[in-house]
Amino acid sequence: MAVFNVIKLSELEGAKRLDAEYYKPEYLELIFRLKKVGCVPVKDVAFPIRRKFKPKKGEYFDYIEISGVDLTTGEFNTSKIIGEEAPDRAQWVVNKDDILVSTVRPIRNAIVLIKEEKENLVCSSGFAILHPKTIQANYLFLYFKMPFIAKLLDRYTTATEYPAINWNDVLNTPIYVGSNEFQTKISLIIDKFFALLKQSRSLYSQAEDLLLEKLGLKDFKPKYEKTYTAKLSNAFSAHRIDAEYFQPAYEEVIEKLRENNIELQPLRKFILSIQKGIEPGSENYRDEGKPFIRVSNLSKYGFTDRDQKYLSEELYQQLRETYEPKQGDFLLTKDATPGIAYVVKEQIEGIISSGILRLQINDSEVNKEYLALCINSIVGKMQVERDCGGSVILHWKPEQVKRLQIPLLPLSIQQEIASLVQQSHEARKKAKELLEIAKRAVEIAIENSETEALDYISKHA
Fold first, then answer.
1. What is the pLDDT of residue 162?
2. Which domains does the chain have, with CATH numbers?
3. Could you say which of 88, 241, 347, 428 is the most buried, measured as most Cβ atoms within 10 Å of its Cβ?
4. What pLDDT does residue 134 have?
């Protein structure tokens, strides 16, 4: 149904915007509510930071790209890049307590708080950088994670081929500052949130270390050869003639396991059923609805809100019986970034894409969490890299998936390793719950009162 809204010429905010979308009722209602509670522009409480990055030949730096940010938690991956290979978008040097706000669409909610001092940390030009002036860094980070702020930033987007906002849009975003007590309460929750995320990563690393230690691969580093030979008979049996496939480093990890008397079994031995997801077509993508889980939305830690697409309720209902992952399902990516394995921990509402395989695993033969960790480890990565080498867009065929060699340790050790993975997941789950509590507290403070928000915090956090 069409929505009509009449705006007086005198109300056209200096006549800088005349597009109807800018004056949608939901935007105007939100602005009115924020003004009513005394919000101020972000520039009143934070500085814009523009530390221009100048790459030096031979010097390495860690680079944060928007696509590497987890939109739910704000965690980020970095790429280690040498100065002369710096991409044009590597533009800003960032330091501790800087808040990075994405200015590009559709990845609007890529918000990062730099918690630790790190040398040579650089981010993309697609971020606006803020540094607290009269506000706590944790609170400013949380505020930009609020759903209504993402909506406001969408309002400011200019309709170009590459939709984006500018730094002034970020600096003029209205922020509810609140009292020092309220900020401190929120900040303490965010401290716990980050501590739990750190604990989660640490527990997962412990599981990885224990696995490699038990497999005799703790300090193993494959040696990539520049020149090597392969038998013609091997090429015929593998149905491959590309040189990369016969790189000795790929076979080295399997040979090392055999030397350590580790039993190896093909993945097919543990698979009860295998099914790939579906591609409904980009014309069916929506801005809201039920999540359409693509390869980019899956990591070894679980589901991530990275450029999330959605499907309508009607289409979801049509597809859910076949393509919705259930608790305990084993998910494995086969396209784009093949070899990411994850065991579904809780029932979710969503549809998996055709780039993800949904496996039923015989857990009387192998622990599923242990199996996922093996595939995510160097043991799985080397085999996947070998199978998928040489393609522009990587594809891992189901028959190759079934041939994947899995090292088997005694079930008692598998369970010990799996327990660490489960503890990692629980810490991450608690962290996300705390983040939602903090968000809700800010909403309550704006909608009702700070007193009510503080009471909510004391009951839930």
1. 73
2. 41-193 (3.90.220.20), 201-409 (3.90.220.20)
3. 428
4. 97
